[in-house]
Amino acid sequence: MNQTDGEVTVEMHGPDGKPKLVSTSTEELYHVKRHYGIVGRSTRVLRAKISGDDSGDDFVLKISYPEAFRIGEHDMIIRAKEIADNRGYILEHLPECVAWLNLPQYSTSTIRDALKVKGKSNSGRILRITAWKRLHPITDLVGKELWKAFWECYRCELTLFACLPILTGT
User: How far is 126 from 70, CA to CA, in rounded Å?
Assistant: First the structure.
């Protein structure tokens, strides 16, 4: 992780096995505001840039502390794409994870061990950083477009829930 000229850059794993440099501005880090989206244990979603990307796509960097035993979101998306292989209506609604990084050295278990705090052995959280192509909120849609998108999301969730319960947290 490097910080220079108002940016923080992290080398992350890309889906093709090659490292990707992902950066966000330090201004973004210090002026995080609540948003419509996932807000969990210290979860933050920040605008990001992918080094060498000239696609014109917008990206976000998600920084979170999920339970260490939970499957990583990038793995969930890979599994969901396998399910979607014969259900085309799902594929167009899945987010695209472009890079990820687990930082076990910042696990709450490591901190608990160092401070000699007793607790469940599997109760630790791990720092995970994922980079995604930015999704646009469903609330940007109106009328028939909103209704169609809502039902497509509902149908995808129902299918994934039935085929792979771990994706939906059940």
Answer: 9
Contact, 14 vs 99, CB < 8 A? yes
pTM: 0.75
**What would the pLDDT profile of 87-141 be if each residue is shown by its tens digit?**
777 777 788 899 999 988 888 887 777 888 776 655 688 889 999 998 888 889 9
| Alpha-carbon distances, residue 64 vs 3, 81, 82, 88, 164 (angstroms) | 20, 23, 25, 30, 23
**Which uninterrupted H or E stretch holds 157?**
helix 143-163
Helix, strand, coil % over all residues of the chain, rounded to 5: 35, 25, 40
17-47: pLDDT as tens digits: 888 888 887 666 554 445 544 545 667 888 8
Q: Which amino acid is at 96?
A: E
- Ordered by start, the domain boundaries in the chain are 2-87+95-135
In sequence order, which ranges of 31-165 are alpha helices (DSSP H)? Answer: 73-84, 88-91, 108-115, 143-163
Residue 35 carries which DSSP code? Answer: -
Query: Is the CB of residue 103 less than 8 Å from the CB of residue 165?
Result: no
